[in-house]
Amino acid sequence: MNLGNCPRCGKLFAMNFRDICPDCTKKIELEYQACAEFLREHRGSTMEELSDATEVTTRQIIKFIREGRISVIDAPNLSYPCEVCGTTFIKESNMCPSCRTRLTKELSQSVKDGQARKEADLHGKGAYSAVNKYNK
Ligand SMILES: [Zn+2]
Ligand SMILES: [Zn+2]
Q1: Keyword annotations for this protein (predicted)?
Q2: How many domains does the chain have?
């Protein structure tokens, strides 16, 4: 038996199939049902309204959205802060479009840098063999 502390309540439990304890699993299930029910009746509610009404933490609600259990199609006003900058509110994935654009640019820039270095290496070798030729 693999014992571990539940990351949610800190209780010791057998970590065989889940990473949180059975009590918390049940509680999360109830929280999900409360959210789903509230959203059925209040489609346009925001994250705060949903959290206030159900007493489910926004962190848990964000988890539900990320897991795809709560769909923002059903709740068009639910949004959560971008994981990268934390200031822009988003409805899908884990970062806002501007952070994504910036990261994509940085990524392609580092790929380009890598290519430039490779080309410089090739040119370097070319120059070296040319020198060799003249020396012969
Ligand atoms: Zn627990
Ligand atoms: Zn961002």
Answers
A1: Cell projection, Cilium, Flagellum
A2: 1
Whether 49 is in a domain gets the answer yes
40 CA → ligand 1 middle, Å? 28
Q: Which domain holds residue 59?
A: 3-78
Is there a domain that residue 55 lies in? yes
Question: Cα(21)–Cα(12) distance, rounded to whole angstroms?
Answer: 8
Tell me the per-residue pLDDT of 16-70, one tens digit each, with 9 for 90 and over. Answer: 778 899 999 999 999 999 999 999 999 999 999 999 999 999 999 988 988 889 9
Contacts of 4 (CB under 8 A, 6+ apart): 12, 13, 15
